[in-house]
Structures are given as C-alpha cells and as structure tokens.
C-alpha cells in the first residue's frame, strides 16, 4: 500500500507502537515527490517534550537533509520528481557511524564521542510534515509539507548495511511496521497500488492461543506442539509450509485481553466438550514459507483469516485470540535450535556437541515410543525437516564385500523406523571406519531431543548372522545444520522460462512444461560437502523446445545445467540457416563463450562446440569477431575434462590437441598436421620431444622446447598444453596489413600462463598456400589480439624467418600464440614478361624524350623572342632537368656494370639530383601559374627568375649533399628483382629511410601542390570562358588539349605510381611507364609543335620558299590587339611591363593553338 500526501496530510505513529531506547537503528522509506518544492519533510521523530529532531529526513533545494540528535547532515543528491526513491538512515552507538543510503548510494558521517548513546524512547513520529510541542500538545508545522507518495516506512532496532537493507526491502520492521494498526491517519488513508507490490516468502507469526481439553488430559508441551503442527497442517493450503514452531509455558490466564465476544466463544467451546474441561494459554511463534512469494499485505490477511477459526482435534480445541495475531515478513529464519522470544526450551549450542552417557530402559522405551508416535502423526515433510551432520567411528567385522553398501543399509534400517533418512554417506579406512553422513529428520519435540534419539539409535550397534557393527559411545559427534533453502531462480532454457521457487533441502518441485502436456521437475538436494541446499539439474526431458530462432536464443541465460541444450540448439539453427548476419553471429559467439565459461565441458560437449566453430569458418565473419572465435577455442581447450594424458578434437578445417604432460619426464612437445582429408579435416599427431625440422609433406608444424616447463603451475597441479590448427585462412583478416596470409594458422599455449621471452625459441614450419617466387617477400607473424583497437591483427615482434623456399617457411619465435606466414603483396612485382616489356618501353620512351627535349631546348634558346616571358624560362629549366634525368637513366646500367663503387655512387647522386630538380621545377611552374592566374601580379618581385633558379637547382643540391654527408653508402648498386639471376645492376638509393624521406615524401609534397594548382587553374579557365563567350566556342577538343598539356607540364602522371595496387597494378604500370618516359616528347608536342608563335619562328628562320614566313607579316597585326588586351585586363603594374603580347593575341585568335595554355605560359613581367 501507499499513501498520497497533500499539504493537509499527516500520519502519526500510533501510541500503541512504542519506540524503545535503541542503541542502533535502521529506518527506510520509499518516496516519490510529485511537485518540486524548495523545502519538504519526509518524517520527523522527537523525544517526549523535545524541540530538536531526534532523527528525521527532509529536503532543501535539491539536497537531502538527514537529522540525528539535533544535528543535520546535508547530502548533495537530487531526487527527481515523479520517480520512486528509497532512502534509509542507519546509526549505531557502537561504531558511532551515521549512514544515509539513497537508492543504494551510501553516504557516511562519523559521530563524535560525545554523541548520545541511546535514542530517546517513547517519542512522537510524524510522516509528511515536521512537528513541535506547544503547551504540551503537538503542533504540526506548515509550509514544509511533503507532497507526493510514501510507502514502506519501517524501523529496525539494528544497524544494517546497504546489502542487508536491500535484502529487507519487503521485510517488516521489528520496531515500526508499515501496517495500518501502527499509524493514526485522518484525511489521507492508505490506498492499494497493484503497481507497488512487495512480495515475500518468509513470515513470522506471533499469537496467543488457548487450548481447551478434558481436565484429565495431561498433555505436555511436546504433545501440545504436535497438536499445533497438525492444526497448522490442516488450516494452511499447500503453498504454505511450516519451517519451525516454538511454544511458551502453559498458563491459566490469557496474555491479551479477550476481544468482545471472546467469552461467548469460550462458552461455545465448553458446550462442545461434554466432560469437565480446563482452558490454558500459551504463546506461539511460527515461521512459515509461502511458495511462490506473494504480496505481503494480501498474504498477511489470508494467514490471519486462517488462524482465527476454532480447531477441534479429538475433542481438544485450539482457539487463537485475534487481537494477539501479529504477522511479519522476515528476511531469514532463525536457527531452529534457538527459541525466539520464548524460554521453555533451553537453547542448544550451535557448535558441534558430543553426546555421551548411559541410557536407562525407560529412556530407550521413551525414545522408541517417540519414534512410533511421530511416525503416526506426520507422514510427510510439509512442516520443514531438521538436518544433522554426524561423525562417528565404527568397527565392522564379519563377512562383507561392500562396506559402503552394508553401512548404508544398517543406517537406513536403524534410523528409518524413526522417519529419518541418511544422505551423502562417506567412509574411510577399515575395519575401523571413519564415517560421516547427514540425517534428515522430522521435528519430534526439539533439537536436543532429536539429537539424543539419534545418539541412542546409533550406539546400539547392529548384529546379525554375518556381520557385527559396533559404535563406541564416546566416538559419536552429532551437530544440527541449517542448509537453508534452494534460492528462487528464473531459468531461461531452450524449453522456455521456468521460475523455480525457494525450496527446502531434499525436496522436489514440479511444474508444467511451457510447451507440451508433461511436467518439468527439479530436485533441491543437500550438498554433502557444504551442508547447504543446492539445486540439482532440472529434468526437462519430457518438454518440447521453445527456441526457434536466434532472437529466442539471445534471451536464454546460460547455466551449467542447460549448456548442452544450448549447444544442440545452436547446431540445429546453423543447419537451418547457413548465412548469418553480424547480429546473429554475435549471438552465437556470445552463447558459445558463455557455455565455455560456465558449463562443465565434457569431451562430448567440447566435440559439439568444435563442430560448430568449424561451421562458423565457412560463414562470412566480420573482423571484430575473430578474437571472439579464438577466445572460445582457447577457453574450451583449457576447461575440457578428459581422462588420460591427451585428447584431440577434429572437424573440417579445425583441430585441437590437448595434452596434460608429465612434468617429471618433460622433454618438449611437437604437434604436426600431416595432411587434410577430402572434407578438410586435419590429420594430426604429436610427439613428446622437441624437434627442429618437420617431416616431409607436413602442412603445419610447431615444436615447443623444454624451456616452457618453467611456465607450468608450481602449485602441484598438472599443466595443460594445447595446440590448435586453423585450416581456413580467410578467418584471419587484417584490413590494415599490406600482406596476405599465405599459410594455415597453428597455435600453442599453456593454460593460465603467458609464455614469452624464451631462450630456446619455438620452431614453426608452415606450408605455403601458393608457391613463393624468388622475388616474393615472406614474413613470420603472430596474431596480436590487441592490434587495431582490439580487433586483432598480424604482428612480427619476436618472430624471425629461419628458412623460406617455394613451398615452406620456417620460423623461430620467443613466445606462444597463433602463428602464420604472410606474403608481402605490396612489393610483389608483376610478371617477368610484363616487366621486360615495361623496361623496353622505359628505355625507348626515355630515348625519344631526350631527342625531343633537345629540340625543345634548341628552339627556345635559338629564338630570343620565345624566351622573353617567365613561363618559357621555367620551361627551359624543366627541360634541362628532364634531359639530364633521362640521359642518366639510359646510361645508368652501363656505368653500373663497371662494378666501381665510386662511379656508381657518383651516377646515383647525379640521378638523384636531376630527379629532385625535375620535380622542383615542376612545382615552381605550378607556383608561377598560381601567381599569374590568381594573384594577377599586383606587386613587383625583383630578380624573379633568378630566385626560381636558386631554388630549382639549389634545393636538390642541398638534399643530395646532406645524403652524401650523412651516409655516402646510401647510394650504390641495386638489383632489379624482375630479371632473377640475370638482373642488371642499377645505381640508385639503397637505404629505405633515405628513399622514403628524400624521394617519396618530396614527390608527394610536389604532387599535392601541383594537383591543387591544377584544380585552381581549371576553375579559372572555366570562369574566363564564361566571361568571354568567344573563347568558349573552341570546343571540347581544345579544352582537352589544355588539360593534357597541364598534366604533363606539372608531372601529374606520376600519380599513377601511387595507385598501382592490386589487380589494376599491371595496366597502371604500363600507363606510368609510357607517359613518364615520354614526358619530354609531350612537352615538345604541346609547347613547341602545337604553339603558334613557335611554329612561326620555325617558318621564319628554318623554312625556305613558299613555306618561309616574313618576320613582320603577321607580327604587326598582333601588337595592337595585344596592347588592348593588356590595358583592358590590367595584368601588370607600371613597374612590370610586357615584353610580348603576341602570345596573348595568339591565344585569342588561333584555332589551332592551345589558347588557355598560352595564358598559363605567359606572364607579362620583365626580369
């Protein structure tokens, strides 16, 4: 129930509920505020006449304020409105610690030594508002009211931890309860709320009961207890079972005043019993279990209604005073050897006791009679049996073949006649046997009496015609044990959801199958080692599975009991659906991982998991799932239970060899996969020695040295070494690697050990999946679980390549993990035939370029008018650099054939120099275009070309000089891998670091710059076409010429070398060789042959007859329009006058020339 508090609502503790002087306390309440107020008060307790708050709870502006002994502690904890919050206050005078617990968050406040030791007793407690005493009466304070809902206010007389309070969330307080009889309320009565149910299965019943019987009956306390048990069995339904019953001494007067009508009831009782009667009263405390757990308030009302009617047992009447009935939910039951709040039966020590002494005939007869009486009274286990642990020494003589069975029969026969069962018998030795077992007994009178009965029965011994058993009286130890209950548990299985309730030890629970008409059963057994009640595996063999897809599988909780069923279910699902998406694969791997962690991995179960993992190999997996798969196989190998020294499991493309080596005779281990069968199942074997070289034809081989023995456990446990073989290379996908896996994967590990830094390395030999060519590069690697953000990847740290031929690679590694061999696809050359063709193309192209670069240089140097502008001067320098590069390339191999280190270093240095100079001048040409087209010459730059020359020829010289100064041997002879044994020498950079720093990075920087300029220039051309419609009519071919000329001038064809990867490598390399070797030819084509003013100079100075052109025939016509263009575009400042206007004229009028290209090659500056 809950209470809705408004501003006029107040609850006050009833005067009948008295708070004693406590040394400890715990107070809990559930709150939900419905409006946000600056100040509020949840509860307030004050001692008699006190003005300060003895303890209380309030709030202020998002803070919680807890009060104790007039002091306040502020907790910065905001409790959002319209949400339930649990707030508890705990205090102890012993540790002087005050705790505030809000939604399980604990805030501790130590108290000083002067703080009060006792809580003020008999005070006043109000809920929802604070109060004061004015003139001896209570005055409720307004303005700080709690507005919202409140429930489950309870108080205990002990300080509890956060965990204990959580376990008591539905348990009544033993000082103040959340029952209406404890509270006075007027305007705001409690309301039931089905959404706020509090369920409990344990209850304590306190009541004052009258027994009316014949005056001649002289029932003792034990007899009355038996009658009470029979009464409770009769009135309680099957779901309520009695755990224990405690009675007080009989008295003549009731403890509580009878309610109205009680006298009339007693007259009715007297009228029922014909003979003279007597009525006596006793207090009764009963602990009961309700299964399944139900709402506390409804359960209390039900139990109370069951106890009120009069019960007649053989003319013996039991009547409970309704006013005395008090039912509380509790967290735990007391030990049945203790009698809560009653003193009739003296408590029995919880420690083990030894019962000794002699017995009289009357005692023995009393015990036997007690057995008979008990057997007749109670024929089932509904009232909660009592359990004992017995240790004894017995001597057995005579003829017997199975002492365990003989002793078991004797105990069952001896104790069974008193309705006792024997469990978990264990014996040791002989003929004097040390024996221990557990006893399940019906509660006869009390614990002490039952213990004495067991003692009397066991020390009698046993004799028949064949055997004799004797138990010395001083060698029997009997102790009461409390196994508790098997916990309430909801189990998601492949057969559905089964909520198993709390059950007593040695009892079975049955419920209907979720699917089907049969029942599922589960036994709560008594553990022979721990003396605790534990659940046995459920029997669901008669039920029908409910899991039909992966979503159902995801909702199942894996336990040791259902792990085999889950593996079977996964197998069935994979048979039905072979293609899984990533989400479904994640579900399968997660469940397999849980099975390997919690399940008992028998060889049969591990074999099934091996087959599933093998099937997964043939399903496409994501890179994030590789580590999960490897972890499953590793953990399965660690936890599989098998007999003997070794066990193996194989499936298509997967094999596991598990070995428990004998440490006293350990000389190493070798594992080999000799071949793969037709279905890809590996054939494996192992040897108990260390071997360096494998047998011929081995697919995978790994050998562990004797040194790994130092990683075996030193606690005496037998070590385990496991080998794995993975015959599916596609499983190991490393997206960041530029190498591909060219072998299967083999692994080795030692359970619970990280084997690394071995002095004698592990030897691994793996057969290639495809034969290695002589120029191929291979690398020995291992799978690094932490690489690529824990997705896994290949790493070569600690592994070295010992030997590699066309079919095998042998490795040595200083650690254990998953090993493989990678093939470096990034450096794998194209075929020998293609490379010979490319070499021919390169040499022919370079020769052709040299010729046409020479023609280009002669043309520009011979005709002064062509080299007046800056772009032409830049073109001349670029042609010189390209000519030097191509000529050295043509003679490089010839000079290298002299085998002279000095000559080769010189050639390589000059080759490097002209290479850098070529790219430097291409970059400077791009810079000049940018300045000419974008900056539009707004400032004068003195010595413009001179500065370009200093940079274009000086920067390469600086780089080459630094290389020579740092390491002259960076230059030298290299062999081309393409020509195998007959490969010619070539003088070039030999140091990879120098190559990547001075060549790759330099070229990359220039290419990025040139690409940017290229894009800007094309954009500018487009703008010019839009602004000048006459130029836009020249068509697509004209624009294509412009793009092509810029591409070769800026060297953009070198980009092809950066993208020549994978299947496109060969065609791209053909394009690269063709375009770059002919770069000099294309410069001649676009900047001589297709340029109008160059052709005019040729016709003026080189042609004869009608082909010769007069020097001034067209030149005069070009001046005036050119001058106009210059003046109209304002492309130069007064200090930067043009020397040529003919090119601009030509750009605008010639249909055959590259008009826009002329713009980029014309910069109207004067040096």
TrEMBL record:
Topology within the bilayer: Multi-pass membrane protein
Domain GAIN-B: 660-829
GO-annotated molecular function: G protein-coupled receptor activity
Cross-referenced SUPFAM superfamilies: Concanavalin A-like lectins/glucanases, Family A G protein-coupled receptor-like
Entry's transmembrane regions: 840-863, 875-898, 910-933, 945-966, 993-1019, 1040-1062, 1068-1089
Record flagged with keyword Methyltransferase: no
Biological-process GO terms, alphabetical: adenylate cyclase-activating G protein-coupled receptor signaling pathway; cell surface receptor signaling pathway
UniProt superkingdom: Eukaryota
Pfam families linked: 7tm_2, GPS, Pentaxin
Domain Pentraxin (PTX), first and last residues per copy: 1-198
Annotated segments matching region Disordered: 1117-1167
Alphabetized UniProt keyword annotations: Cell membrane, Disulfide bond, G-protein coupled receptor, Glycoprotein, Membrane, Receptor, Signal, Transducer, Transmembrane, Transmembrane helix
Matches recorded under Gene3D superfamilies: 2.60.120.200, 2.60.220.50, Rhodopsin 7-helix transmembrane proteins
InterPro entries per the UniProt record, alphabetical: ConA-like_dom_sf, GAIN_B, GAIN_dom_sf, GPCR_2-like_7TM, GPCR_2_secretin-like, GPCR_2_secretin-like_CS, GPR1/GPR3/GPR5, GPS
Ranges where the G-protein coupled receptors family 2 profile domain occurs: 838-1091
Entries under PROSITE patterns matching the protein: G_PROTEIN_RECEP_F2_2 (PS00650), G_PROTEIN_RECEP_F2_4 (PS50261), GAIN_B (PS50221), PTX_2 (PS51828)
Cellular compartments per GO CC: plasma membrane
Subcellular location: Cell membrane
Similarity remark: Belongs to the G-protein coupled receptor 2 family. Adhesion G-protein coupled receptor (ADGR) subfamily.
Protein name stated in the entry: Adhesion G-protein coupled receptor G4
Gene behind the chain: adgrg4a
């Amino acid at each position: 129930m809950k209470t809705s508090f408004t501003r006029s609502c107040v609850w006050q503790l009833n005067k009948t509920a008295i708070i004693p002087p406590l040394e400890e306390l715990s107070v809990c309440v559930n709150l939900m505020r419905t409006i946000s107020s600056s100040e509020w008060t949840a509860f307030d307790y004050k001692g008699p006449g006190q003005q300060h708050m003895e303890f209380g709870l309030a709030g202020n502006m998002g803070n919680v304020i807890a009060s104790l002994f007039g002091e306040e502690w502020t907790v910065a904890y905001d409790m959002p409105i319209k949400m339930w919050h649990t707030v508890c206050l705990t205090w102890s005078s012993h540790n002087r610690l005050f705790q505030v617990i809000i939604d399980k968050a604990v805030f501790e406040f130590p108290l000083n030594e002067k703080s009060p030791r006792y809580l003020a007793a008999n005070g006043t407690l109000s809920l929802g508002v604070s109060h004061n005493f004015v003139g001896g009466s209570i005055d409720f304070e307004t303005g700080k009211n709690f507005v919202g809902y409140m429930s489950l206010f309870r108080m205990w007389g002990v300080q509890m931890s956060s965990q204990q309070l959580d376990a008591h969330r539905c348990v009544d307080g033993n000082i103040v309860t959340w029952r209406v009889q404890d509270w006075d309320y007027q305007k705001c009565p409690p309301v039931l709320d089905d959404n706020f149910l509090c369920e409990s299965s344990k209850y304590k019943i306190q009541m004052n009961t009258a027994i009316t019987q014949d005056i001649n009956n002289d029932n003792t306390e034990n007899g009355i207890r038996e009658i009470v048990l029979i009464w409770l069995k009769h009135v309680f339904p099957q779901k309520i079972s009695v755990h224990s019953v405690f009675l007080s001494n009989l008295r003549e007067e009731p403890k509580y005043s009878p309610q109205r009508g009680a006298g009339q009831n007693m007259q009715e009782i007297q009228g029922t019993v014909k003979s003279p009667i007597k009525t006596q009263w006793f207090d009764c405390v009963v602990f009961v279990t309700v299964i399944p757990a139900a709402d506390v308030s409804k359960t209390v009302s039900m139990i109370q209604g069951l106890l009120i009617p009069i019960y007649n047992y053989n003319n013996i009447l039991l009547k409970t005073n309704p006013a005395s009935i008090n039912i509380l939910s509790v967290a735990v039951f007391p030990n049945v050897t203790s009698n809560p709040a009653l003193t009739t039966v003296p408590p029995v020590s919880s420690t083990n006791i030894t019962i000794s002494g002699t017995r009289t005939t009357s005692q023995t007869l009393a015990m036997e009679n007690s057995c008979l009486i008990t057997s007749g009274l109670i024929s089932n286990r509904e009232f909660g049996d009592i359990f004992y642990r017995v240790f004894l020494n017995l001597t057995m003589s005579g003829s017997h073949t199975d002492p365990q069975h003989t002793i078991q029969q004797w105990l069952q026969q001896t104790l069974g006649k008193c309705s006792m069962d024997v469990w978990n018998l264990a014996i040791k030795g002989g003929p004097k046997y040390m024996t221990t077992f557990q006893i399940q007994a019906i509660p006869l009178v009390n614990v002490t009496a039952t213990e004495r009965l067991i003692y009397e029965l066991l020390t009698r011994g046993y004799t028949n015609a064949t055997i004799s058993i004797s138990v010395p009286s001083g060698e029997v130890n009997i102790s009461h044990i409390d196994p508790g209950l098997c916990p309430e548990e909801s189990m998601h299985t492949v057969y559905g959801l089964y909520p198993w309730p709390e059950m007593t030890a040695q009892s079975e629970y049955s419920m209907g199958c979720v699917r089907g008409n049969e029942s599922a059963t589960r036994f709560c057994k008594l553990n022979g080692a721990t003396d605790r009640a534990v659940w046995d595996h459920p029997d669901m063999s008669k039920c029908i599975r409910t899991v039909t897809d992966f979503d159902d599988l995801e909702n199942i909780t894996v336990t040791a009991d259902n792990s085999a069923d889950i593996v079977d279910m996964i197998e069935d699902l994979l048979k039905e659906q072979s293609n899984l998406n990533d989400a479904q694969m994640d579900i399968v791997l997660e469940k397999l991982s849980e099975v390997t962690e919690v399940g008992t991995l028998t060889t049969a179960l591990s074999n099934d998991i091996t087959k599933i993992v093998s099937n997964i190999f043939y399903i496409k997996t994501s890179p994030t799932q590789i580590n999960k798969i490897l972890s499953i196989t590793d953990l399965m190998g660690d936890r599989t239970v098998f007999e003997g020294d070794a066990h193996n499991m194989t499936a298509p493309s997967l094999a596991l060899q598990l070995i428990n080596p004998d440490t006293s005779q350990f000389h190493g281990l070798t594992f080999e996969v000799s071949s793969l069968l037709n279905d890809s199942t590996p054939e494996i074997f192992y040897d108990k020695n260390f071997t360096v070289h494998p047998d011929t034809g081995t697919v995978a081989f790994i050998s562990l040295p004797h040194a790994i023995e130092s990683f075996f456990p030193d606690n005496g446990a037998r070590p385990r070494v496991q080998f794995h073989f993975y015959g599916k290379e596609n499983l190991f996908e490393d997206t960041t690697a530029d190498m591909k896996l060219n072998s299967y994967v083999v692994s080795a590990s030692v359970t619970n050990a990280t084997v690394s830094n071995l002095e004698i390395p592990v030897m691994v030999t793996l057969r290639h999946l495809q034969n290695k060519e002589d120029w191929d590069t291979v690398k020995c690697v291992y799978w690094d679980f932490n690489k690529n953000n824990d997705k896994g990847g290949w790493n070569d740290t600690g592994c070295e390549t010992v030997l590699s031929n066309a079919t095998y690679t042998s490795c040595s590694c200083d650690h254990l993990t998953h090993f493989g061999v990678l093939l470096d696809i990034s450096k794998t050359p194209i075929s020998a035939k293609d490379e010979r063709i490319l070499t021919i193309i390169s040499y022919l192209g370079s020769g052709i370029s040299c010729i046409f670069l020479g023609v280009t240089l002669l043309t520009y140097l011979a005709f002064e008018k062509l080299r007046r502008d800056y772009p032409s001067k830049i073109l001349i320098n670029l042609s010189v650099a390209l000519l030097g590069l191509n000529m050295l390339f043509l003679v490089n191999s010839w000079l290298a054939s002299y085998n002279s280190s000095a000559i080769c270093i010189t050639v390589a240095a000059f080759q490097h120099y002209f290479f850098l100079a070529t790219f430097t001048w291409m970059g400077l040409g791009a810079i000049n275009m940018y300045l000419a087209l974008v900056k539009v010459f707004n400032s004068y730059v003195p010595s413009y070309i001179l500065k370009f020359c200093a940079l274009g020829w000086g920067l390469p010289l600086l780089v080459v000089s630094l290389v020579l100064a740092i390491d002259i041997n960076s230059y030298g002879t290299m062999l081309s891998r393409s020509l195998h044994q007959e490969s010619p020498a070539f003088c070039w950079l030999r140091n990879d670091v120098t190559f990547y720093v001075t060549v790759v990075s330099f070229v990359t920087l220039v290419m990025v710059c040139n690409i940017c300029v290229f894009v800007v220039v094309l954009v500018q051309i487009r703008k010019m076409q839009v602004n000048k419609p006459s130029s836009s009519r020249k068509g697509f071919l004209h624009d294509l010429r412009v793009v092509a000329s810029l591409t070769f001038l800026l060297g953009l064809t070198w980009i092809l070398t950066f993208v020549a990867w994978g299947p496109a490598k060969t065609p791209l390399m053909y394009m690269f060789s063709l375009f770059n070797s002919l770069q000099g030819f294309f410069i001649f084509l676009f900047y001589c042959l297709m340029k109008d003013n160059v052709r005019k100079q040729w016709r003026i100075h080189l042609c004869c007859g009608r082909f010769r052109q007069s020097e001034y025939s067209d030149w005069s016509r070009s001046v005036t329009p050119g001058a106009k263009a210059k003046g109209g575009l304002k492309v130069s400042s007064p200090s930067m006058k043009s020397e040529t206007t003919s090119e601009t004229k030509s750009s605008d009028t010639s249909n055959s020339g590259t008009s826009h290209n002329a713009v980029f090659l014309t910069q109207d500056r004067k040096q």
